[in-house]
Amino acid sequence: MVRKPVSPRIEFDAAAIYQYPEQLRPWLESLPKLPGVYVFHGESETMPLYIGKSVNIRSRVLSHLRTADEARMLRQATRISFIPTAGELGALLLEAQMIKLQQPLFNKRLRKNRQLCSLQITAGTPQVVYAKDVDFSSTAGLYGLYAHRRAALETLQKIADEQRLCYPLLGLEKLRSGGACFRFALKRCAGACCGNESEHEHQQRLISALEAVRLQCWPWPDAVALLEQRTGQTQYHIINNWLYLGSVNKLEDARSLCSTTPGFDSDGYKILCKPMLTGKLPVMLVPKA
């Protein structure tokens, strides 16, 4: 019996079959050339497909429509909405807040991280501490923001390798019997484990290396307003403990947002720390009620 040759199976990614999303054309005309946030909606009224931000909403949305890699999302989209902001900072803050609250189907970043952790030196040894246990906005001596414990320890190990620090003294491994650690014999440890350098010197080198990622405590006594303006729009972004509470057009309306219990937000910290502490935008205390 002669068997017919089997045709090779052709594998393909269905999402890569791209067709221009004609159903979205009615929503394009109103898109502004302004900074802000845009939303692709599907059939669900409560869960959007995708939330993004740009300094030019119209240009950014049109770039999505020309991207074959986003075909799967575009096929499900039924409409597009947008919220203009006074500038790029407001768009960044609003995007991060909306993604956390609405959990869009196709957004991978900026989702709430319940394992957020940092490094803290306790009794001379770095320890991993978690945001659920420690207030990151007011606790001094925290170093770095990490998505999980493994990432924190990988950073500590990288610093140890670069600075020839001792793994056992950092809690990364147990000290062998006999004094010196294994890495000392390989000249990868400067020898704090066996007296070649003092533990104080070792500690100072560790702290010096960690200084680049030291977390800044919230420096104001209460909520503040961060002023951002462009022609035709003024916004006061209300911040407390690095948490973005919302934006208002008049400073006297800011107290209405301050009833929310402030809690540390890693995305808010990353977005806000530099512009707020360097004076890039005006910062003012929210007036008392």
Indicate the structural class. alpha+beta
The largest beta-sheet arranges its strands as 9-8-7-10
Percent strand: 15-25%
The portion of residues assigned to helices is 25-40%
The SSE order reads EEHHEHEEEHHHHEEEHE
- Averaged pLDDT: 90
Ends apart, CA distance between termini: 92 Å
Instruction: Estimate the global geometry from the Cα principal axes.
Output: flat
Rg value = 25 Å
Number of beta strands: 10
- What characterizes the major β-sheet? 4 strands, antiparallel
- Tally of individual helices: 8
Number of domains as seen in the coordinates? 3
Low-confidence stretches at least 5 residues in length (pLDDT < 50)? none
Overview of the molecule:
The chain has 289 residues and is an alpha+beta fold. The protein folds into three domains: 29-102, GIY-YIG endonuclease (3-Layer(aba) Sandwich), CATH 3.40.1440.10; 117-213, no CATH class; 224-285, no CATH class. Helices cover 27% and strands 20% of the residues. It contains eight helices and ten strands. It has helices spanning 57-65, 71-76, 88-102, 149-163, 167-170, 182-185, 199-210, 266-277, and strands spanning 36-41, 50-54, 79-84, 117-122, 125-130, 142-146, 224-230, 233-240, 243-248, 283-285. The strands form three sheets. The protein has a four-stranded antiparallel sheet with strand order 9-8-7-10. A three-stranded antiparallel sheet has the order 2-1-3. β4 (117-122) and β5 form a beta hairpin. α3 (88-102) runs antiparallel to α8. The N and C termini lie far apart (92 Å). The model has no long low-confidence stretch (mean pLDDT 90).
